[in-house]
Amino acid sequence: MNVHIGLDIIGNFGATVPEMHGQISKMEDTAQGTMIDVMWDNGSVHHITLDDIRDDYMGENDYGLPIGFYINPFA
């Protein structure tokens, strides 16, 4: 996966907030791994790790799209 600042991300949070769209705004290597800030379209920032980002957005199962953070395949 080629993850970089400015990459479009989709956050799937489940039923009450189905999806949010944003971009990676900061990346920092730490002893715990690569920490990433995602700035959502509404201006809020979410802190995740590189391991949290998936590249299988179209990989729905019998229950729909699993909750998580995905590289936007439509950008």
Strand order of the largest sheet: 4-3-2-1-6-5
Helix content: under 10%
Amino- and carboxy-terminal Cα gap: 15 Å
- The gyration radius over C-alpha positions equals 12 Å
The total of helices stands at 0
Average pLDDT score? 92
Could you state the oligomeric state of the chains shown? single chain
Name the poorly predicted regions: none
Number of domains: 1
- Structural class, judged by helices and strands? mainly beta
Pattern of helices and strands: EEEEEE
Strand content: over 45%
Instruction: Summarize the main sheet.
Output: 6 strands, mixed
- Overall, the morphology is globular
What is the strand tally?
6
What does this structure look like?
This protein is mainly beta and 75 residues long. The chain has one domain. It is 0% helix and 47% strand. It has no helices and six strands. The protein has strands at 8-12, 20-30, 33-40, 45-49, 53-54, 68-71. The protein is globular. The protein starts with 7 loop residues before the first strand and ends with a strand.
